[in-house]
Design goal:
single chain, alpha+beta, globular, about 100 residues, two-stranded parallel sheet
Length: about 100
């Protein structure tokens, strides 16, 4: 959920994506604030995970979105991605 991913995630929520699986094992730091959408100095002080911030951004746009946070690198916990070609939410379910 770095700078680029946070922008893409925000825009996906804006255009109507409803199902998200967010991967990142990192917490926000001060040097992330200039590029991480939704990140605040309070988040830095609280050492929030970037996935928590992304979920907050998504829910601020689409409160009833399905959001699954995986606080790991996807390579370490790929199970949520198995069979994704068959899930509607992967390509985006727009309502």
């Amino acid at each position: 959920m770095g700078g680029g991913s946070s922008h893409v995630t925000q825009q996906m929520a804006h255009v109507g994506f409803r199902d998200f699986t967010l991967y990142d094992d990192d917490k926000i730091e001060g040097h992330n604030l200039n590029r991480l959408v939704g990140g605040t100095t309070v988040d830095v002080a609280m050492k929030l995970r970037k996935t928590m911030i992304a979920e907050r951004v998504i829910r601020g746009i689409t409160p009833d979105a399905s959001v699954r946070r995986v606080d790991q690198r996807w390579q370490l916990e790929p199970e949520p991605l198995r069979g994704v070609r068959h899930r509607r939410g992967v390509r985006g379910r727009v309502s």
